[in-house]
Amino acid sequence: NAGVTQTPKFQVLKTGQSMTLQCAQDMNHEYMSWYRQDPGMGLRLIHYSVGAGITDQGEVPNGYNVSRSTTEDFPLRLLSAAPSQTSVYFCASSKQSRPIYYYGYTFGSGTRLTVV
Amino acid sequence: KNEVEQSPQNLTAQEGEFITINCSYSVGISALHWLQQHPGGGIVSLFMLSSGKKKHGRLIATINIQEKHSSLHITASHPRDSAVYICAVIPNSGGGADGLTFGKGTHLIIQP
Hints:
The complex is a heterodimer. By secondary structure, chain A is mainly β. Chain A is built from one helix and eleven strands; from the N terminus they run βββββββββαββ.
């Protein structure tokens, strides 16, 4: 019963490098999302998906791409890393996107990314 | 714009104390989440509530929809309760793209 699995847990990138943060869930959840968490701020939504083949932007999408080719996987791509993308990233999933208040969220353990 | 304010931002208490963390919001909501984030760890959903009160072990969450306020209480606090507690609301108007607006969190430390 793995839940939501994020890899890697830690990563250091140089400015301009690209990388992919992996997120996988084994609960057959339709809804998946990526958040970033910065000191002194609440979680902010980057991108989300309501099902395979469907993605949309959240509050802070610039500099990030996503795709949802399968129900299980929702990778987050940084195309050209910038120091402003230094953050902790969380992937989350839910059985359905609405009503979230009924189904709730399952979060991954996070990826701590540093861009130097 | 919906604002979610948590207080206090930081709280240090002694083991055994009764802890209260508050969450206030500015618009009508359909539900509210309390989440727990352990140091270096992931985020766990503690409660979802839209009215009244819920209890799980030593944790109690209450909500007053009319006053736009929720509280999370911890009885007989223990060092393992040390974590960041996050309030998130689902506004009636839709909120963010995923329907959630998050507070900045309350950093709780319970000293032995």
